[in-house]
């Protein structure tokens, strides 16, 4: 029986397909002979003819050969390299519909990974942007030399083919301007660009971050080794051509890895950080410090965290995976005390500086894992009322969730950037905690990413 099933779908096979929904990566999802087929670029409600390009045991991947029935929400993507570049997935879907589909992606993850009755959950409408373009305050563009010219851009989806992106329309214009000018400076100074195949050359990546409210720009030149010839002259030229650049750093990453940054960062010229503002808060951002990529939506996201926490001034708060302390500071006015932790030492230094600068004396930050530090604080007699977590895409560490269940804070606020890991984590604590509501927030318009703020409360009667 299994062998018969395996021969149902073959590579290069073509067939008609009705797209039922969007997958977690923004691709269309349909079913052929009860088998799941993923089709990038296809939209829910469309009838398409597809050609199979990959067959896996549980699903197949296909490309669109013809659209027989178009979605009423399909539009022409405004970016000229949209179909080659892997940065965005939904530019061809009208924005109001993107918001609805993102809520649906969240619901699908909950259906797949939890035992919740979805109709009983309060899953709110996605909070979007008024102008869903030019929002990203940071770019990480790989460099390559092609025909004597330096190309900066992003890798095409599932490949190592670099697509030149001179004007990215989801990037803040300042980052585009700075990247193009630095490419020209590198060409003028004949800076050797790193070649992955030959392992020769020096510069791998340009990372550019702009303080949207302050206008300050930081450039990080990521190199394969510590040597960067004439780096002071290059830095001076950057300052001359780009007065908005107040910080030029060098990060050394000798490893063959998908991670952009290595462990060592040097200051070439200017400050070691830039400032940015959100509402009344000013944040110092060093090269490797985490900071949300869409400040306008971050204000909405953090305001949702504040609403969910509903502080009275008496609560002790833990800001786990705290980065540079942004969420804790946002809630500081209503808290009796804030404690945070993060595994990146530079982030903790930034968090301490940010707290001091804003006169928040009731904040304490430590470098390390939440699952190690929380039990230590508990032994010292310190018990949190509210735990806020904003973990990476991999979700919360199992040890952290077990620690949470032992500590039993009254409220747990989960800020998620990955619906699948969110759903799994909520299921893991569901015997003791109740989901009050889920508020999706669109932090990355034109992509398939969806964030969510989840208010979770300790059940009144915990099972013995």
Automatic annotation (TrEMBL):
Gene3D superfamilies reported in the protein's UniProt record: 2.40.50.1070, Nucleic acid-binding proteins, Vaccinia Virus protein VP39
Single biological process term from Gene Ontology: rRNA base methylation
Active site: 417, 417 (nucleophile)
PROSITE patterns for this protein: SAM_MT_RNA_M5U (PS51687), TRAM (PS50926), TRMA_1 (PS01230), TRMA_2 (PS01231)
Pfam families noted in UniProt: TRAM, tRNA_U5-meth_tr
Domain (TRAM): residue spans on this chain: 8-66
GO-annotated molecular function: 4 iron, 4 sulfur cluster binding; rRNA (uridine-C5-)-methyltransferase activity
Database matches in InterPro entries: MeTrfase_TrmA_AS, MeTrfase_TrmA_CS, NA-bd_OB-fold, SAM-dependent_MTases_sf, TRAM_dom, U5_MeTrfase_fam
Keywords associated with the record: 4Fe-4S, Iron, Iron-sulfur, Metal-binding, Methyltransferase, S-adenosyl-L-methionine, Transferase
EC assignment: 2.1.1.190
Binding site for S-adenosyl-L-methionine: 292, 321, 342, 390
NCBIfam families: rumA (TIGR00479)
Family of the protein in this entry: Belongs to the class I-like SAM-binding methyltransferase superfamily. RNA M5U methyltransferase family.
PANTHER family: PTHR11061:SF45, RNA M5U METHYLTRANSFERASE
Listed name of the protein: 23S rRNA (Uracil(1939)-C(5))-methyltransferase RlmD
Native source organism of the sequence: Lederbergia citrisecunda
Gene: rlmD
